[in-house]
Amino acid sequence: MFTGLVQAVGRVADLSPTAAGVRLRIDPADWAHRPQPGESIAVSGCCLTLAEPVGEARLLVFDAIPETLRLTTLADLQRGSRVNLEPCCTPTTLLGGHIVQGHIDGVGEVASVVTEGEYRVRIRPPRGLMEFVTPKGSVCVDGVSLTIAGLGDDWFEVALIPTTLRETTLGELAAGSRVNLEMDVLAKTLVHWARVWGLGARG
């Protein structure tokens, strides 16, 4: 589990095809966290497992399988791409964001970015994900926990504060950018329950 509070921005050092998909090596820059093999790390919102011990080069090594590449923006990464990094929670972690699983629901497209006055990003999610968007609800965009600031029939907006723009990759977004989206797990659970059991169901 994660909280959507990005702790570092890393850079892709290398990508190489493997029989299992793609081996991804990320330079975490000055991130003090030293994960152990098997530990889960959110890479731009995608939960990945550290595949090798961190060596002298301090590179974080992950394997991205075809399913992950098909359903997220990890397939778009190139050498030098910047990615948001967050370690998994522990029993003592402060939940400063919201409950994030690192399981991407779909890839959205940035429709517009407004930088004057309030910094706002409008995102169009894949068909079917808008039902999980609620006013002032939570959404995870490229691994960043955000609050819904506005919504329409097929889009929602998030407002970005200076800290988010400085400490994550979201300040690099422009119209046409693709972003990983994880909708609020509580909203998904409620919608699923209503579908399966019906809002007016009797026991």
Distance between the termini: 33 Å
Regarding CATH, which class of the largest domain? Mainly Beta
| CATH architectural designation of the largest domain | Beta Barrel
* Named CATH topology of the largest domain: Elongation Factor Tu (Ef-tu), domain 3
- Rg, nearest Å: 17 Å
Q: Quick one: biggest sheet?
A: 6 strands, antiparallel
Ranges where pLDDT stays below 50 over 5 or more residues in a row are none
Given the C-alpha coordinates, what overall shape results? globular
Structural class: mainly beta
- Indicate how many domains the architecture comprises: 2
Number of strands: 12
Helical content, roughly? 10-25%
Number of helices: 3
- Spell out the helices and strands N to C: EEEEEHEEEEEEHEH
Could you explain the architecture of this structure?
This protein has 203 residues and is mainly beta. The protein has two domains: 8-87, Elongation Factor Tu (Ef-tu), domain 3 (Beta Barrel); 106-194, Elongation Factor Tu (Ef-tu), domain 3 (Beta Barrel), CATH 2.40.30.20. Helices cover 12% and strands 36% of the residues. The protein has three helices and twelve strands. The chain has helices at residues 66-71, 162-167, 185-197, and strands spanning 8-18, 21-27, 40-43, 46-49, 60-64, 82-87, 106-114, 120-124, 138-141, 144-151, 156-159, 178-183. The strands form two sheets. It has a six-stranded antiparallel β-sheet. It has a six-stranded antiparallel β-barrel with strand order 7-8-11-10-9-12. Strand 3 (40-43) and strand 4 form a beta hairpin. The protein is globular and about 50 Å long. The mean pLDDT is 93.
